[in-house]
Amino acid sequence: MIPLRILHAVPSMDGEELQAAQPSLIALARHGHETALLIPDTERTITDDGRTILSYTPGWWGWVRRERRITVRKVATWTPDLLHAHGLANLGTTLDLARRLGLSVVVTLHHAEEPYAARRLRDPLVTWVLVPTEHHRAHALARIGLARDRVAIAPLGVTVEAAPTASSLASAWTIGAIDPGERAALRRWLTAVAEVQQAGLPLTARLLTTDPDRATEMAIATGCTLVCATGHDIAHFTAGCDVLALPGNRECSPLLPLTAMALGKPVIGIATGGLPELVRDGQTAVLVKAGDRDAMADAIRLLHDRGRRQQMGDAGRSLARERYSAELVGEALVAVYRSALGDAGVGGKAEITSAWRRMTESRSR
Fold first, then answer.
1. Structural domain boundaries of the chain?
2. Better pLDDT: 62 or 137
3. Are both 5-157+325-364 and 173-323 of the same fold?
4. Are strands 34-40 and 5-9 parallel, antiparallel or unpaired?
5. Which of 212, 224, 289, 301 could form a disulfide with 219 if both were Cys (CB 3.0 to 4.6 A apart)?
6. In 10 A of CB 365, how many CB atoms?
7. Which DSSP state fits 344?
8. Does residue 104 register a pLDDT over 70?
9. What's residue 350's pLDDT?
10. Which residues make beta-bridge pairs with 177?
């Protein structure tokens, strides 16, 4: 079939949206499809792997007066078939650009967005809204009010490689956590870790945070020995841990548990949102009730056993390979793109909506 040229709109070079999209972009390129990035406020014109970057300056007044004309010319020169917006950031700009160039738009949502997004997501140019789980799909239908035949499940694609080497001793291991941005949830996690540490089980705790001073202050208050890390590279942080904890009560980005499983790391998380659909409780992850600090401490103790960590990590990598590999997700994306472009050889809306599910079920048989 004819290769596609897809322009992917992402809000930044180092945000989670581009990290989440990158494996699938590589898979698309591997099958002959061309992809470029539309990113605001960057001086780069090409990525490290040779992908074209089209930049623009955001801000509605500047966009109307000057940037719109410049960006339209840039995009028209690259001649994309379709625009794929990752997240809601700058979606208004993306839709305005697509309208002027006569392009259809596909939007990926990583979170269960609130109804304020409804107006732009219901724009006639948006042919598909892609969500990672059935939980997100139900939310998009009920809370945002999207039509059922415009929402498709397409999880993030991940690259499953050899798992990094874990700690060499059963008693020496590292648990990493992503700062949930919720003070109460972070305090509960730090208290649970401190409880395990003070019981005499050697445990190194690391936290990826944008506010290390606040986290350190809370760690001291709870008696937790903590090492703070900063930055945006989730895969690099997770690779340095034996277990990844997601302590927030609010829904986490699907990038976090999928990255952990692809790297062979068990997950500790809260049984809320779409997380129970992405992992398998008791097999690849330990899920606990929201607000239950004792259950969080018990989950940490459970994964103190190196053999259990290895078993759950291997199960996570198998699940990531079977259901979330970049090749599989890339194949589902191509079906969605061709449907958006009106390809006569692609099945109807109902078929495309379940494309990823059909592909994963055929693999599991």
1. 5-157+325-364, 173-323
2. 137
3. yes
4. parallel
5. 224
6. 4
7. T
8. yes
9. 47
10. 207, 245
Q: CATH 3.40.50.2000: does it fit domain 173-323?
A: yes
CATH number of 5-157+325-364: 3.40.50.2000
Long-range contacts of residues 298-303, Cβ cutoff 8 Å, at least 24 apart:
299/268, 300/175, 300/192, 300/193, 300/196, 300/203, 300/243, 300/245, 300/268, 301/196, 301/201, 303/175, 303/242, 303/243, 303/266, 303/268
Q: How far is residue 9's CA from residue 97's CA, in Å, rounded to a whole number?
A: 11
Tokens 């079906």 -> residue: 335
Hunting for tokens 């591997």 — which residue is that? 30
Taking only the tens place, the pLDDT of each residue in 61-88 is 888 888 999 999 999 999 999 999 999 9
Phi/psi for 130 (5° steps) reads -100, 130
Residue 127: phi and psi, rounded to 5, are: -85, -30
Helix axes 16-30, 326-340, angle to 10 degrees: 80
Q: What is the pLDDT of residue 77?
A: 95
The residue behind tokens 């738009």 is 105
- Cβ neighbors of 36 (< 8 A, separation 6 or more) are 5, 6, 7, 8, 51, 52, 53, 54, 78, 80
Higher pLDDT: 320 or 170? It is 320
How are the residues of the chain apportioned to helix, strand and coil, as percentages rounded to the nearest 5?
45, 20, 35
Do 270 and 249 contact (CB within 8 A), yes or no? yes
Q: Which residue has the tokens 């035949």?
A: 149
Q: Is the dihedral of CA 312, 316, 318, 319 positive or negative?
A: positive
User: What residues does 108 pair with on adjacent strands?
Assistant: 86, 130
Dihedral sign of CA atoms 268, 272, 277, 282 in order? positive
Q: Is 321 exposed, middle or buried (0-12, 13-18, 19+ CB in 10 A)?
A: middle
Whole-angstrom Cα distance, residue 252 to residue 342?
34
Q: What digits encode the pLDDT tens for the residues 179-219?
A: 998 999 999 999 999 999 999 888 999 999 999 999 999 99
